[in-house]
Amino acid sequence: MRLRGRVLTDSTETSPRIVVVDDREVAAILPDDGGPVDRETDGWIAPGFLDLQINGGYGIDLASEADAESAVAALARHLVRHGVTAFCPTLVTSDPATILRRLPAMRPRLIEGGATSLGAHIEGPFLSARFPGIHDRRFIRPPAPDEVRRWFDVGDPTIVTLAPEIEGAHEVISFLAGRGCVVSAGHTAATAYEASAGVAAGITMATHLFNAMPPLHHREPGAVGTLLAADVVRVGMLADGVHVAAQVVAFIARAIGPERLFLVSDAIAAAGAAPGPVRLGEQTVISDGRVVRRADGTLSGSAMMLDEGVRNARAWLPWLLRGQIVDMASRTPARALNGRAGRRGRIAPGWAADLVMLDRAFGVEATIVTGRVAYDAAQSPNGGAP
Question: Which residues are catalytic?
Fold first, then answer.
């Protein structure tokens, strides 16, 4: 397959090029010779987006669907409409049996016609009781090494979000990091000292920075300041304009750059679905089409898919190059997985042919997963819209 368009990768933008795809890989990037191609765009060819935190979408809730295997696959087939070629299906705080039941369905695997699962992101249950966010307090519990070991008996998680300050966290952090799992700090009341100790134990990621943690203070920087200051930590953030203000996204982008800041959707079943009630685990939350809240007003994940966050970032961060904006949804999240994303997040010979073709407004024209067209807006009755 031959594709023509300007290439956005590694923070750069080329003039029109020919991207040659052979089987599942990019075979070459060639000068545009004006010859025939299979697909072309007057916009850009970019690495496919990676969403490391997504709980559901299009009415699908990964924590409660009866058939977890089918739920992951169905969500994967929706995600390609949004330029997502790989994702970490995310499980909110749940009882021990639910985690064990759902982990196998969230394993790394290719999904026919959809985005590739990179393995589970278990968000909780070892969180701060002070900052549960939408997580069900009934299931928040202290870290239990025996419980974590049982996870690996049924399916290795790719990411685990926990609060580093709670008793027993360091043992679990060290165990997880030793098994190649990415440990992320989130839903935490950690002081700067406690957050630093968590980083020393193996934390390399931050889950939706600012949300469900104390705000940054100039004398007690807490988790926010410590995670930003730690060069080994890559920082996930929602760019929906609700969870974090656009000015704060801009501030953080200037502070740590697109090499460490990556975008997530944190989407739940409400994303891509009509406004109204949706499930999130054992809870019901309400979407107005943009914001999702519990009845008490608590923010409850997002109704936004990742491509919208990319477009928001492009509008909010005009000093960044287009390639840098794309990096925050491709190269940087791939790097955050510490090798578990494989050769994804770049367009280069020998790398996965996971690509998204974008129009001039950064709308998704086509999505290619492992060398096959998984989505074509021209053949979809609703184009790229939900």
Answer: 266
